Every structure is written in C-alpha cells, then in structure tokens.
Amino acid sequence: MTDKIIDILTDISGADEGEILADTELFEEGVLDSFGLVQLVVALEGEGYKLDLAELDRSQVSTPAKIAQLLQ
Amino acid sequence: MSPYQSLLFFALLALVLLPAAVLGLRGRSLRVYGFAATLVMLLLFFDSWRARLLLAFFYLLQVSLCFGYLALRRKSGRRPLLWLALLLSLTPLLLCKLGGLLPALRPLSFLGVSYMSFRAAQVLIEIYDGHIRELSLLDLSYFLLFFPSVASGPIDRYRRFSADLHQERSGEEYGELLRQGVWKLMTGAFYHFALGELIWQFWLARLPEHGFLATWSYLYGYTFYMFFNFAGYSRMAVGTAVLLGVQMPDNFNRPFLSVDMKDFWARWHISLSTWLRDYVYNRFALASLRGKWFKNPRVGSCLGYFITMTLMGLWHGLTPGYLVYGLYHGALMALNEVLDTRWKKFKKLKKQPAARTVMALITFHLFGFGLLLFSGRIL
Fold first, then answer.
1. So what's the pLDDT on residue A30?
2. How far is A55 from chain B (nearest CA, A)?
3. What interface predicted TM-score (ipTM) does this complex get?
C-alpha cells in the first residue's frame, strides 16, 4: 500500500524515483502543498478510496506511511 | 463603543470576565454565562436602536437560514439549495459592501457584518457537506454573535467552538486557560497600543504625503504598523475568548519569517486565509481536477489562487484599490505555484539558511508593496 502511495505522490509532485520514502515528511520537504493534497485526494478516489478533504488534517497525511495507515 | 478601543471597554471587559474567572476556577461551565455576557457586550457595542435593529434582523435571518437549510438538507443534497442559502446569508454583507459605491446603502452597514457573515456561511457549507447534522440554538447564536471576535475576527469554526462550550474542565484546567488568556490580552494590548501606536505617531504620521523616499519609508512603517495593530487586536480577542473557555486559534504566526507568499498566507490572518482555502480554493481545485477542466492541472490551481485572492481583496471593500490588491496577491500566489512546480531549485533553496533569509526579505517587501496598494498610498 505504501509503495502505491509513493508512486502516486511521485507522479503528482514530479519528484525523482526513490526521492520519496515511507517516512518522508511530505509538507516539510515540499512534496505536497495545498494543490498537491487535492491531487492526492482525487488520485486516491480513482483507486477507490474516499477521503474527505474538508475533514483531512495535514498531520494525518504528513508521510506516505501515515496515508497508508489512514486508508487501512 | 468599539471593542478594544477605549478604557471604558476594558473596564467593562474586566467586569464581565471576573465572574467568568470565578465560575471557571470553580470548574463550572461558562456556556450560558458567556452567551449572556455576549448579549450585554453587544448591547453596548450597538449603541443606537437602528444598529440594534439591523443586528436583530441579521441574527434572525442567519439563524432561520441555518435551521431552515438544515431541515432541507436532511431531505435533499441538491447544490442549488446551498447556493440560494449562501446568497441570502451573504446579502446583508453585499449590501454593506455596496455601500462603499452607493451612499444610499451606507446606513445598512453595521459592526461585525463581515465576520458574522463568514461564520454563518461556514455553518451552511458544513451542513451541505454533512459535517453539521445537528444545531443547538444556544450554541449557534453564541457562535454567530461571540463578542470577543465580532468586529475583526479571528474567524472560528462552529464545530470547534461548540466542542469547547461543552468541554468539561476542572478548576485547575481553567486556571491554565486564565494564565494563557491574561498573557494574550496583555501582550496583545502591548502590540496594539504601545508598538502600533508608537509606529503611527512617531513614524507614519510624520512622513510627507508624497515623494519616493517617504513612500519607501511608509512601506516599512505601514507593514510593521499593520502587523502590531492587527496581530495585537487578534491576540486580545483570542485572550478574551480563552478567558470565556473558548480556545480560539491564533491568527498570526511570525509572518515575517515566511520564505514565500504561500508560506506568508499560512502565517498572516490565518483564520481568514484558511477559511478561504477550505471553502473557496480547495473546492475550486477539487472541481477543476474532477472535471478535468485543464490539460495542465496546475493551471486550475493558479486560477484558484487568483479567484481566492481577488475575493479576499474585494472582501475589504468594493473599490478599485482593493481589487488591485487582491489581483496582486493572486498573481503572486500563481507565480509562487509556477516556481514551486517549474523550478526545482526553489524548493531546495527554501531549506538553506542563507537563502531563507534572502527569501524572507523578498517576501516581506512583496507584502509591504501590497500594503502600499491596500493603503491607497500609491493608487
């Protein structure tokens, strides 16, 4: 699951392969911003996961591992 | 009487807060007392019958809309109903803002219409989203009218506010709030009255009205003045709220350390920028992505920033100056977006201490120039 999320995040942010790890701090490292978060929510919708953007706290999705945990 | 502006206000505030502190230290709920205190303070703020009537009409309209829309939402999730409710809810604010252009509408303006409208609109949107499924008349009324932040914010959120009202606290826990609240009130007053006023009296008021150097100096003076004046005011409002058991979030977080404009708006007037982010920008961005409106999705983000920041500008008033101010910040946010996505080094620079200092200085000047537009000094 975490790998899948890393793939999505790499695609969204244009990061280099291997740049994003399971514990990368996504907002601190500039991988995600406000729009990136919206893109993530839409990309996960495409995978069948529904996240409510309005209820999402950045601390819940600050690393790929946390996102995977949230989805599970 | 205007809030936080006279000795009489602070004397009355002390009278109102003293029983709150006694109740809080005894571990009692402040919900009903706080609402009663809000009504008393509003009677003092709205010191003419015309103003009181306008407030009463506004309050009845917003409460009816919130309860009415909640009842409708239980039956139908159609979006046009939300748009209609929002239009009705924002009509008093629109009329007040139009008063800037049409003098005949000016008598319709009243204290706090902007901030109370933001609160009501937020309740309606959250009812539509399904996040608010129940409303309490007391909590809603208290939330809409809450006197510490009625005139200039911060803009709180209903569910957070209501949760605070119902939180049970021991006397010891309230003691900690008391310490925090008094500290914020005192430091806020120091910012607002000491530092803000000093800058005004001994810097801005002494500058010539025209001239390049005077305008250059005004940029620095006015930027610092706005910070101490507004951050101080917000801090006093937050401190007062905390003493009433409402832990309202802070409105400023060291904005002059910001390394770019996105960072800046996450630190300046935070409650307004997060409101606009959550209820305008995010929704526009989400719709543009789901609807695949743009070949390059980031175009949607740039346009979203333009719309959001233009609204922010116009919210201050329907004048060409505020429109230009909003467009200017929309352009800066869009440029920030382009740099973030197109120039990989930009993100790396944000992590280097020396580069951060330079970027903070650039951000400060970009914001300062925006305030020259805002103040009307160069338009």
1. 86
2. 9
3. 0.91
